[in-house]
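INFO  loader      accepted 1 record
INFO  loader      residues=104
INFO  predictor   begin
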Amino acid sequence: MNKTSLLGAAFAVSILSGCVSTGSENKIDLANINFNDLTCEQIEQTFTDYKSAVDSGDTLTGLISIASSEASTAANKAKAAAMEVYYQAKKTAAPAVKLKGCKI
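INFO  predictor   done
INFO  writer      dumping tokens
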């Protein structure tokens, strides 16, 4: 496995874990958030940060695709899985969002 494939695989694993790094030491783990404990602003920011982190992976995927179609495929699958986590978390958060009257 060349370096590019390894990088793509690492990216895929990090996204598939359900945690996305925001560039700092903070990781967004939508699968383990209790939305009832958050304010409307915190809920909105959590989803915004997660989506931004996933979207920033598009740049890496583009660079990887230049060197390795295998790594690119893995990265694209990882992004799709990350977005599935995002949409599932939105469904999970919906009752708390409604109860709190959030405008998200």
